[in-house]
Amino acid sequence: MRPTRPSMQELIRQRRRAGFVGRGAERAAFRTNFDVPPQDERHRFLFHVHGNAGVGKTFLVRELEQVARERGALTAYVDDSVGSVPETMAALSRQFAAQGHRFKELDRLLAAHRERRHEAEAAAITTLEPSEPEGPSAGSRAAARAGLVGLGMVPGAAPFVGVLDADRLAQGADRLRAGISARFRNPEDVQLVLSPERVLSPVLLAELADAAAVTPWAVLFFDTYERTGPFLDGWLHELMTTDRHGALPANVIVVTAGQLPFDTARWGGFADFVADIPLAPFTETETRGLLADKGVVAEPVVAEVLRLTGGLPVLVSTLAETRPADPDDVGDPSATAVERFLKWEQDPVRRAAALACALPRRLDADVFRAAVECPQDEAEGLFAWLRGLPFVSDRGDRVQYHDVVRAPMLRLQRMRSPRGWAERQRRLAEVFARWRTEAEDGRPAIELWADEGWRELRLAETYHLLCAGVRGMLPEVLAQFVLACDAGEIAARRWARALADAGQDADAQDAGRWGRELTQALASDGIAAALELVLHRAGFNDAAQAFARTMRGRELQRAGAYEEALAEFDRAVELNAELVVAHIGRAVTRAGLDAYEEAIADLDRAVELDPDRALAYSTRGEYHRIQQRYDKAIRDLDEAIRLDPTDNFAWASRGASRSARGEFDAALADLDRALELKPDYAWALVRRAQVWRGLGDPVRQLADLDRAIVLQPDWAWSACHRGDLLRIAGRYEEALTDYDRAIELDDEYASAYASRGACRRVLGRCSEALADLDRAVELNPDYAWALSQRALVHCELTSYEKALADVDRARELRPDDAGLLTLRGGVLNALDRFDEARADLDRALGLAPDHAEAYSLRSTVLLRLGLAPQALADLDRRLGLVASAPLDEDEVVRLTELTEALLRAPDTDRSLLAPLLARLTSARDGTRTSRITD
Questions:
Q1: Stronger pLDDT, 905 or 466, i.e. the higher one
Q2: Nearest CA among 326, 288, 321, 323 for reference residue 306
Q3: pTM of the model as a whole
């Protein structure tokens, strides 16, 4: 194989970079760090470059990136073109893929995150079913105790810390998770909406580790950190200083660059691995060196450059490129750096292009052609020339002026010709409006605001209209801000930023003030606080105010502030009784408060207003299912599926409804369809496992539960369900492992405590069983099954009065439960209250004529009442049910003792006992261990 030689382009770039002047100490420190092994205390894992605008941070960062690549490093560069942690990960993934290291799993999850983020409102529509009160809390008070403010990862939660106590915050967190879970069901999808970094970060680290294992170094660059730090700094700190998301390879180096020093409260304790690089303007020596490199050596010219630029690298570099030969060529102090450059540039087309292209906030080839009036055949070359200017940064498919240059350039044009300024801004707004209209193509508004590309066009149009000073534009932009809030906090931040930028760039003071205040509200307290600001001061009409209150209600609901959310939805409905999203939002909030009848009434109104909205039907169907009104649930879910056959949630919910009605074949078909639409739907897998149980197929039941746990290993519900299956199969130690895991994941999961208690009772560990069941009843005092299991433990301990108290309480909750009546009959028998015991068992068999355990117990009671023939008949009936209800070991012992007692009874027809004894012996030999679980 021939040795690899550098290309011509690479050699040219290296020679050009060899002329880099200044920042020698900073470059040397970074370069030397590659020669120090990570295990050496002198090695630095983090470099933070900081200094004022124009001081050359981006220029140095790009230089450091080249240094890293020369050392064989994989590199990735991120700036303020990203607006969130997931967008940051996407940018890193794209750049690593371009270098031959594709992060496939991260890309898959990022695509899922984008899809789920757009569905976030629908995701919060329903709640976990209270018909299963023994189910997991799904968030638990641990979040509040850990200082997460119930569910503090949700924007907007912070303002309510003083309003809600810890219990209420925890309850709100549970309900929030449950509400979003009702749409997605897969807990991973829920996390992708609520806290995507928790799902994505471990995957990023794992795939970064794979890439770092086959390369000397991996270097991550985060530029414009003064803008990205508010959402990146905490995450980056977690990645580097904790193992919360996994291990970060030691050969990874991080470089951040922004105007501000690091937050000492967060990073102050880690100075031993951080290299702090403050940048000041170029020294006189560095400035002279850069000018000399460009051939500018005449002392009067150099002195003028030193005077005018103050050593700011971007300005020095700009003037050096003009190669002025005389002080007059440099310009006067009142002109901007760009104007001084244009004074040297004699080509009028280029001069006009450089000025015109300062107007858009960001440029690509299409925007360039819209901004610059030049022949089409010259546009490509002119754009290439512009990209090469020293104050223009190339960001892939887009370019952007340096703020230090763009700001005074805009001011120059605005002051020189206010009318011309306004006209050029209007023309650009019209271009973006035309592109926006083309992108709409008859799509509904709710779909448009979920489309990031469309939002970007709308925002650019809005910015230019604000800069043009169009009358009445500010109220319209604030209404757009509310719609942007509906699209998520990232979109809301970008709208606030556009207001702030327009205020600065066009001297639009009202817009600038709104932009700054909304940005601050979003950064400190989230969307709910920003919307409160808009509602109090924007002067919206009733329709706009109703929608804003609906959006704020949604944010309050997500933060767990249900009463406050309900007040907002009530007000929204008063203002606009036909706003469908307000009725749906109020339904969700009422469901979160367990007011399901009122929630269904809201959904009735939503369906009346919009009969074709599938979401309203699927939500109402789920609430009917929760209320155990399965016929109504299935009717609504049928309609939801008719309107949207791809709605995997509706298929799964209908399957769960049919399963509850015992229609296992139909339920299986629905759940199969839900899993065809979404193969990693863990909630549907657990529901299908329950169907397999009903169909008597434990092998497939276990397979589905195993798959659900693989998909969501931190989901307590699936672990508990698998434990139940193993317990029923007599695999008690394995079941205990699953129950332990479920409780580790959620220490307020009543069902897991109850099941573990039942398992420990079977193993004879009664004191531990009693402690578990006490905890289950403490968490859920109305948990009838836990009460019945605790009664069995009390019976094992011969505490029959305590057992009777538990059974009586359970029967208050389920008065027509044949199993509870049978258990009560057994307890009364142990207390020698035979007549009462017989009455309970008679009633049990009236409700369930084939209840095997009731026949077994009643035969014992009848014998003790001296009614041997009737006892013999019940024994005969019990043995006749062996095929459908096999005997367990305890029952074999009890029936053997009963048979012996019947042999001693004077009025027993002994001729009937011989065949019964033979059947009992056969049943005993063929029995398998089984426990009553329901």
A1: 466
A2: 288
A3: 0.62
Neighbours of 70 (CB within 10 A): 12
Domain boundaries, the chain: 8-123+165-278, 284-421, 445-539, 850-934
- Tell me the pLDDT tens digit for each residue of 56-100: 788 788 889 989 998 999 999 998 888 888 889 999 999 999 999
- How many Cα neighbours within 13 Å face the side chain of 495? 30
Q: Report the pLDDT value the prediction gives residue 770, as an integer from 0 to 100.
A: 95
In the numeric block, which tokens belong to residue 209?
């580790």
Residues 6 or more apart whose CB falls under 8 angstroms from that of 131 comprise: 626, 627, 628
- Rounded CA-CA distance 492/391 in Å is 29
Closest CA to 90 of 112, 65, 110: 110
The three-state secondary structure class of 370 is: helix
Q: What is residue 881's predicted lDDT score, i.e. its pLDDT? A: 79
Tokens of 85: 């942690």
Q: Which of 570, 569, 500, 496 is nearest to 526 (CA)?
A: 496
Residue at 800: amino acid letter:
Y
Tokens standing for residue 472: 């009445």
Q: CA nearest 637: which of 623, 653, 648?
A: 653
Nearest residue to 123 (alpha-carbon basis) of 192, 60, 57, 75: 192
Structure tokens at 325: 């030969």
Cβ(321)–Cβ(294) under 8 Å? yes
Going by C-alpha positions, the residue among 143, 177, 179, 137 that lies closest to residue 161 is 143
Pick from 95, 86, 60, 157: which is nearest to 559 by CA?
Answer: 157
Burial of 476 (0-12, 13-18, 19+ CB in 10 A): middle
pLDDT digits (tens, 9 = 90+) for 134-193: 444 433 333 322 222 222 323 333 333 333 344 444 444 444 444 445 445 555 666 766
Q: Where are the alpha helices (DSSP H) in 221-357?
A: 225-241, 264-267, 284-293, 299-309, 313-322, 327-330, 337-344, 348-356
Report which of 881, 879, 876 is spatially closest to residue 908, judged by C-alpha positions: 876
The β-bridge partners of 218 are 74, 252
Burial state string for 635-659 with b = 16 or more CB within 10 A and e = fewer than 16: bbbebbbebbeebbbbbbbbbbbbb
Strand order in the sheet with 46-50: 74-78, 218-222, 252-258, 46-50, 274-278
Q: Which two tokens stand for residue 345?
A: 């540039």
Token digits of residue 218: 């991996």
Task: Scan for tokens 């960062």, then name that residue.
Answer: 61
**What's the rounded Cα separation, in Å, for the pair 356 and 371?**
6
Crossing angle (nearest 10°) for helices 509-525 and 489-505: 150
CATH fold for the domain made of 8-123+165-278: Rossmann fold (3.40.50)
